[in-house]
């Protein structure tokens, strides 16, 4: 995995998140989901931005992917059935205590041959890397690459019926494409933290991508994955590069939740001492209480040693949800399975993991 260093490399970003052009919203838009009760649900973060921007521009209505928002009469209208209307409301000074369970629940609990590493050599991880298979090794981050990232997000968003969300995200990227690499990276992190289709699709694609080859020449197996490499690869590369160059957390623990079957838990037990490469970006939290409050039967306790080359960055200062205390692990980090035990005090299986490195 390369040499260990207790200091940040010379070409690294010395301080994370000195500023962010995407400021946290002061208002939240909600819609009444049940006619008979006072049950209100939040729009996604991107939808919220689209609605609020239209409101600030004194527009009477605005289009979302599945809905029309009538700001004048404060209702949402279903595009497929105009008779399906729901009241909406604008809430100011909304508390930012909200924490998303889905974000900190493991999406890749099953161990398989793709995940395992028999060695700590860098080439193993590089040959399994989505961004390397996409041909993005050492590609310079500039306005051309940012435009490719924006266009790719728009293309994939349209495929999953999120055209409006994708256009908004792409436009935010275009606003910073002539800025420095650090500010471009911060924008990508900010967009990643927002509740939208983007982070879910990116991680699903990276987890499921089939990659062949060895050494430093990985290739996608299918045409579908090759296309994903073209459309989503640029965004993933910018995000991965930012995480690699930013200051890393060291000498601490972070946590993730999961709901595993007995077979999955036994699989982890059988492979104690082995290394696993998590192929997508992984959201973890510094706050164990957050994951203990979730309903999963398993807790991942991940030790970040004092000396590690594995990219991990505390991104709460950039996040829409700072109370989540998120530490984002870069894609393809190498993690060692240390032990698996059941903790009666919390009624959960605890899987102890460690990022590659030394204390």
Secondary structure layout plus pairing:
Blueprint: E1 27-32, E2 40-42, H1 45-56, E3 61-63, E4 67-70, E5 75-78, E6 85-92, E7 116-117, H2 122-127, H3 130-133, H4 143-159, H5 163-175, H6 181-193, H7 197-208, E8 211-212, E9 219-220, H8 223-245, E10 252-258, H9 262-270, E11 275-278, E12 282-285, H10 288-292, E13 298-304, E14 307-308, E15 312-314, E16 326-329, E17 333-343, E18 348-355, E19 357-358
Parallel strand pairs: 13-18
Antiparallel strand pairs: 1-2, 1-6, 3-4, 4-5, 5-6, 7-11, 8-9, 10-13, 11-17, 12-16, 14-19, 15-16, 17-18
Helix pairs in contact: 4-5, 4-8, 6-8
Description:
- This protein has 359 residues and is of the alpha+beta class.
- 32% of the residues lie in helices and 24% in strands.
- It has ten helices and 19 strands.
- It has helices at 45-56, 122-127, 130-133, 143-159, 163-175, 181-193, 197-208, 223-245, 262-270, 288-292, and strands at 27-32, 40-42, 61-63, 67-70, 75-78, 85-92, 116-117, 211-212, 219-220, 252-258, 275-278, 282-285, 298-304, 307-308, 312-314, 326-329, 333-343, 348-355, 357-358.
- Strands 2-1-6-5-4-3 form a six-stranded antiparallel sheet, covered by helices on one side. It has a six-stranded mixed sheet with strand order 7-11-17-18-13-10. A three-stranded antiparallel sheet has the order 12-16-15.
- Helix 4 runs antiparallel to helix 5 (163-175) and helix 4 (143-159) packs across helix 8 (223-245).
- The chain is globular, with a radius of gyration of 21 Å.
């Amino acid at each position: 995995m390369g040499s260990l260093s207790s200091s940040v490399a010379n070409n690294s970003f010395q301080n994370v998140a000195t500023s962010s052009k995407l400021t946290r919203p002061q208002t939240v838009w909600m819609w009444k989901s049940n006619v008979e009760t006072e049950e209100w649900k939040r729009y996604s973060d991107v939808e919220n931005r689209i609605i609020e921007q239209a409101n600030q521009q004194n527009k009477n209505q605005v289009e979302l992917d599945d809905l029309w928002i009538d700001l004048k009469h404060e209702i949402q209208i279903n595009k497929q059935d105009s008779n399906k209307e729901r009241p909406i409301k604008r809430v100011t000074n909304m508390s930012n205590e909200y924490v998303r369970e889905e974000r900190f629940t493991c999406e890749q609990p099953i161990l398989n041959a793709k995940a395992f590493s028999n060695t700590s050599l860098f080439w193993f991880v590089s040959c399994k890397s989505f961004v390397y298979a996409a041909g993005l090794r050492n590609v310079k981050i500039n306005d051309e690459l940012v435009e490719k990232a924006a266009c790719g997000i728009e293309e994939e968003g349209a495929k999953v019926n999120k055209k409006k969300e994708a256009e908004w995200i792409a436009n935010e990227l275009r606003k910073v494409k002539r800025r420095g690499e650090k500010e471009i990276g911060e924008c990508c992190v900010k967009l990643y933290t927002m509740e939208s289709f983007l982070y879910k699709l990116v991680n699903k694609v990276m987890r499921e991508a089939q990659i062949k080859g060895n050494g430093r020449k990985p290739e996608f197996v299918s045409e579908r994955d090759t296309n994903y490499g073209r459309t989503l690869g640029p965004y993933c590369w910018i995000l991965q590069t930012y995480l690699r160059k930013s200051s890393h957390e060291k000498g601490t623990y972070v946590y993730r939740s999961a709901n595993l079957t007995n077979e999955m838990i036994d699989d982890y037990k059988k492979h104690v001492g082995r290394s696993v490469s998590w192929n997508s970006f992984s959201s973890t939290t510094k706050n164990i209480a957050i994951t203990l409050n979730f309903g999963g039967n398993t807790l991942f306790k991940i030790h970040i040693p004092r000396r590690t080359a594995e990219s991990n960055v505390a991104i709460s200062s950039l996040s829409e949800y700072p109370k989540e205390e998120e530490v984002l692990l870069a894609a393809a980090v190498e993690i060692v399975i240390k032990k698996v035990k059941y903790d009666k005090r919390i009624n959960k299986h605890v899987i102890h993991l460690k990022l590659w490195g030394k204390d």
